[in-house]
Amino acid sequence: MKEREYQICNRCIMDTTDPEIVFDEKGNCNHCNDAQERAKTMWFPNEEGERKLKAIAEEIKRTQKNKEYDCIIGLSGGVDSSYLAYKVVQLGLRPLVIHIDCGWNSELAVKNVENIVKKLNLDLHTHVVDWQEMKDLQLAYFKANVANQDVPQDHAIFAALYSYAVKNRIKYVFNGGNFATESILPKSWGYINLDYKSLKSIHKSFGTRKLKKYPHVTFFKQYIYFPYIRKMTIVRPLNLMLYNKDEAIEIMKKELDWKYYGGKHHESRFTKFFQAYYLPHKFGYDKRRAHISSLIVSKQITRDEAIEEMNKEIYPNDSHQEDMEYVAKKLGISFKEFQSIINMPNKSYKDYGNNKKLYELGFKIRDKFFG
Questions:
Q1: H/E element, 174
Q2: Which of 14, 197, 292, 296 is deepest in the core (most CB within 10 A)?
Q3: Distance CA 33, CA 15 (A)
């Protein structure tokens, strides 16, 4: 098969490292074209967004006034979730804050979480995921040689958060996901992190212990139990305001003694290694390209500034080895064995069991009947 000629978008910086990217006659890619279209219905960085958010907050206060907590948020110590906590308190809401510790927290992330809950006078519950199970699952994912190594942590975080919402009878789950910094992410670079069938299949193939305590969520819970039986509502406030990442950082530094850790999701040393080394060197996917392209779409950075940012080395002079050795040691294997696993042929989530067809059907039904 003839190798595709390299091409980069004329508007953002997405390129043919996404094998499924498509360019129009102007040289603009499907990612930023789609993002600009979606912005019309999901992103309101204006007075309309303020009105929508105020209405949501007032509805929550009215209907949940007799409860100890009127909403719940997950707090990692990163930019999005930290700023979300700050804005939720400004709205006059009473959130229960959940921090899910998957075993990879940096000291800086922990300190950020501590400062935030102290400064904002919030109740914090930390859920520590069983490390032996998490370690076994993560090692299984590496042995599976798939791109989406972030699934074991992401799945546990969302599953645990939803579980605490149910346990505490909290209807409103506030989510830091947002259009301004996350409007672009190629589907070819990963897979659905909440597909429990996919997770179980990979663990069955390479895991060595049962996942008895690992938080998980099934397709039924996601699309039937939570929204229709428990009446759970997901709220993304950052889509209803002018959310500028740099401005948010400066506000949190001043108001919350918050400290930046150097990159999107780099509050986790594992995630830093995964995104900054594993993905680019093993699969050719550099998530910075998608993150920065999202900032171009939301006009927080110019294309020239984006290209300059991409030229910066996160791991100059093979400095990735320190983090790689750290990850290997935490997973209980030698550096040499870890290297040999990473050097094995790449695989796809499609090589293992998954619920992709079921999800696609669910998405079609959702889009047809609920918009």
A1: strand 172-174
A2: 14
A3: 14
136/142 Cα distance (integer angstroms): 10
* pTM reported for the whole predicted model: 0.93
Burial class (CB in 10 A: 0-12, 13-18, 19+), 208: exposed
Looking up residue 256, the CATH number of its domain turns out to be 3.40.50.620
What integer is the mean pLDDT of 208-219? 96
Predicted local confidence at residue 266, as pLDDT: 55
Checking if the pLDDT of 371 tops 60, the result is: no
Q: Which of 163, 34, 18, 182 is nearest to 96 (CA)?
A: 163
Q: Which domain range does residue 85 map to?
A: 38-370
Minimal CA–CA distance to 306: which of 316, 297, 314, 315? 297
Confidence band (pLDDT; 50, 70, 90) for 370? low
CA distance 184 to 18: 12
What does the H/E/C string look like for 232-281? CEEECHHHHCCCCHHHHHHHHHHHHCCCCCCCCCCCEHHHHHHHHHHHHH
